[in-house]
Amino acid sequence: MENINQLLAVKRQKLEKLKELGVDPYPPRSARTHKIKVLLDNKDDYISSEEVVTITGRLKAMRRQGKVGFGNIADDSGKMQIFVKKDKVGEGNYEVFKLLDLGDFVQITGVCFVTQRGEFSIRAHIVTVLGKSLLPLPTVKEKIVDGKKQRFDEFTDIELRYRKRYLDLLLNPEVKKNFEIRAQIIKEIRSFLDDRGFMEVETPILQPLYGGANARPFVTHHNTLNIDLYMRIALELYHKRLIVGGIERVFEIGKNFRNEGMDRTHNPEFTMLELYQAYADYNDMMSLTEDMILYIAKEVFGNEVVPFGDTEISFKKPWKRASMIDLVKEESGFDASDFDFDKIKAFCEENGIEVQKTDGSGKLIEALFEKFVEPKLVQPTFVTDFPKEVSPLAKVKPGFPNLTERFELFINGNEYGNAFTELNDPVDQRQRLEAQSKLREMGDVEANVVDEDFLEALEYGMPPTGGLGIGIDRLIMLFTNNTSIKEVIFFPQMKPEE
Question: What is this structure's pTM?
Answer without folding.
Answer: 0.91
